[in-house]
Design a protein that fits this description.
This protein is an alpha/beta fold. The protein has two domains: about 110 residues, 3-Layer(aba) Sandwich (Cobalt-precorrin-4 Transmethylase, domain 1); about 150 residues, 2-Layer Sandwich (Methyltransferase, Cobalt-precorrin-4 Transmethylase, Domain 2). It is about 35% helix and about 20% strand. The strands form three sheets. The chain has a five-stranded parallel sheet with strand order 3-2-4-1-5, with helices on both faces.
Length: about 270
Amino acid sequence: MGELTFIGLGLHDDMDLSIRGVQAIQNSDYVFAEFYTSLMSGFSKERLERKICKRISVVSRKDLEDDNGEVILQRAAEAKVAFLVPGDPLIATTHVDLRIRAAKRRIKIRIIHGASIASATIGLSGLQNYRFGRSVTIPFPDDERISETPYDTIAKNKAMDLHTLCFLDIRAEERRFMTVNEALKALSMLETKRKEGITTLNTLAIGVARAGSEDVLVKAGYLVDLLAHDFGGPPHSLVVPADRLHFMEAEALINLADAPHEIRGMVG
C-alpha cells in the first residue's frame, strides 16, 4: 500500500518547513514539489536537497492539471511519496483535486500543514479575521480586457460590512508576479468604467509584500497614495477593507501599517 503526504512549505524559504515535514520527507521514497501556485522568494531547492539528502523532482502545471498528477499518483500507489507545496498544501484547488484522485485509488493520505498567505496577510493587515468575506484573485489583464470579478466581490463584501482579501496573479512560467500597484491600477480602471464608488482614489487599501520574510512590508493608505508607493519585490497581496472599521482595526492600521490618522473617522 502506497502513501501520499502533502507537505506545506510555508511562506518564504526552506526554513519555514516544519520539523514534522522534514521527518516525513526523509521517510519518503520519492519527493515531488511544485512552485507555480505561489512564489517563495527565498526558497532554494538545492539547499533543501542538501538538508534532506534527497532529490526533489519539480512538477509543472501540465503535470498536475493536464495530466491529472499521474506522475505522482503512480509512484504513490506503491511507495511513500512526499509532495511539497508552497504555503498550506490544501489552499489551491489543484491540490484538492490530487487528494481526491488519490483517495479514489485507496492511496493513504497524510497532510502536514504550513503557513498560508491567506492567514498571514489577514494577520499582518491588522484587521479582524472574522470580518473578512469572500476572497478573490486579481488576474493580469487579458488582451487589455480586465476581469470585473474582483470589483464585484469587493462590492458584495462591502455591502455586508466585510473586508476583502485579494490574491494577486502569478504566472510562474513567465516570471510575472502582479504587484500591489498593478492590482490597484486595475481596480481604479474598473471604477472608472463602473462608477459605483467601490474602489475610488479615496478608497482605503492595505498592501502586503513578502509576508514571512525578514523584510516584510505592510502599508495602508488611500489608493491615490498607494498607486505610487514602492512595495519592492514579490510576492504581493492586497486587502480592501470595509467602509467601516472597528476602533482597534483603525489603531492597528495607523500604528502598524502607517495609515493616515484620519481613518479614525471610519470607526463606527
